[in-house]
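Good morning C.,

I know you're traveling, so I'll keep this short. The sequence:
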Amino acid sequence: HKINGGTLIETEPTKVPRIIGKNASMITALKRYTNCRIFVGRNGRIWVDGSPEAIQKIERAIRLIEREAHTYGLTERVIALLQKD
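The tokens, ready to paste straight into the viewer:
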């Protein structure tokens, strides 16, 4: 597939399952609350396409997931972050 536009965000491959979430819950929330298109590669590369503000929100959410991947209730905290203006 050829990908046009968008932004690449890099993370550690070990964080990819947490970014996708159980039953894709995290990636679904990221898409729902930002209206972005997101593709997560197993190599830790994440392609995001949407408004600049939405892409910034996704990047902040991914950094939060990286820092707190081991904690309980992370999906709720990410959703709260995404809902903020």
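Safe travels,
E.
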